[in-house]
Amino acid sequence: MARGMTDLGSSDRLAAALAHLGTTIDARAKEGDASTSWTAKLLAKGPDACAEKVHEEGQELAEAVMKESDDRVASEAADVLYHAFVALRARGVSLNDVAAALEKRQGISGIDEKAGRAG
């Protein structure tokens, strides 16, 4: 393991936080009050605007990974996950759909998985 690298740690805490995030996003989407909810505001703008936010936040995460503190990296990663969840909701793609895609990849190397993609 390279200097400064640590294990990712237990996924239980993250799983609980992501479950809460998903529930919160669903609730904000149902309430639909763009004047009081950033989530509702993003969803009202549609999938293209949500995609732009995912792109923006992904770029900020990449920059943080290269030159900022660990706390900043964690914060930017949280932003990416939040905006990815909102984008999924905007497209009508469920977390179960994402879980199924991840499950299909279990036990397959990333190199083999990429080689097997169409297009």
Automatic annotation (TrEMBL):
InterPro entries noted in UniProt: HisE (IPR008179), PRib-ATP_PPHydrolase-like (IPR021130)
The EC code for this enzyme is: 3.6.1.31
Task: List the Pfam families.
Answer: PRA-PH (PF01503)
Asked whether the UniProt record includes Amino-acid biosynthesis among its keywords, one would answer yes
Query: Could you confirm whether the keyword Ribonucleoprotein appears in this record?
Result: no
Instruction: Report which reactions are catalysed by this protein.
Output: 1-(5-phospho-beta-D-ribosyl)-ATP + H2O = 1-(5-phospho-beta-D-ribosyl)-5'-AMP + diphosphate + H(+)
Q: In which pathway does it act?
A: Amino-acid biosynthesis; L-histidine biosynthesis; L-histidine from 5-phospho-alpha-D-ribose 1-diphosphate: step 2/9
What's one GO BP annotation on this UniProt entry? L-histidine biosynthetic process
Q: Which GO terms describe its molecular function?
A: ATP binding; phosphoribosyl-ATP diphosphatase activity
User: Could you identify this protein by its name?
Assistant: phosphoribosyl-ATP diphosphatase
